[in-house]
Amino acid sequence: MTGELDTALLRVDEANYLGKTVPDVSIVTKSGSEKLFEIMDGQPTVLVLSYYTCGHVCPLTVQNLSRLRIDADAAGYRVVILSFDVKDTLQTMASVTASLDEVPGNWTFGLLPAAESERLTESVGFKFFFSERDQTFVHPSVLTFLSPEGEVMRYLYGTEPREQDVELALIESRNREPYLNEIADMVALTCYQFDATGSRYVLHPTLIFGAAGIGVLGLCGLATLASRKDSRGDS
Fold this sequence. Notes:
- With 235 residues, the protein is of the alpha+beta class.
- The chain has eight helices and eleven strands.
- It folds into two domains: 153 residues, Glutaredoxin (3-Layer(aba) Sandwich); 53 residues, no CATH class.
- The chain has a five-stranded mixed sheet with strand order 5-4-3-8-9, covered by helices on one side. Strands 1-2 form a two-stranded antiparallel ribbon. The protein has a two-stranded antiparallel ribbon with strand order 6-7.
């Protein structure tokens, strides 16, 4: 779409999209045509909608995300970066991957055909328009977290995601399915709540001000240490 700047485009109307399932769209990757759910492979997924000729926000977001040291087995989650710009090509996509120090094995870059781009962006409430004056797309800078079944679980905004926020959003997106660190993760989610205004996880206020908070805060610290030790021990 084209037109004048609408600041409402910079955030998603989350209440209308959280819990909704995204379509299993067809994606063009360097290996050929693939389906989104095949790429996700039943794992929680960080979905990044961007465009590859972007001069600032998109590459900055991708680069900062690639530099995070996430305390989760790379085999246990996916990162899927897709262009909503139908003019992008395998060549423009390759220029982005070449700019990274390393492309993690659990990352996939792809292109969306016009109809599939419309289906996917609409399903997660991602709106954008092309500014003729600036010759650039205006769109939210947001990471969309999907459950293994493709449900929208969380949005994180900004070009500099924090490791803690990404880790906790992945825990939520896993749908609490049993796995090795489930107890530690449940404690972590008990200790933190999501602050939609700041688009980040913060310590639950009742733990900070409540008398019982001292003991639970200790559990939070132990859970964090256990999670990090287990993750690094498996690497």
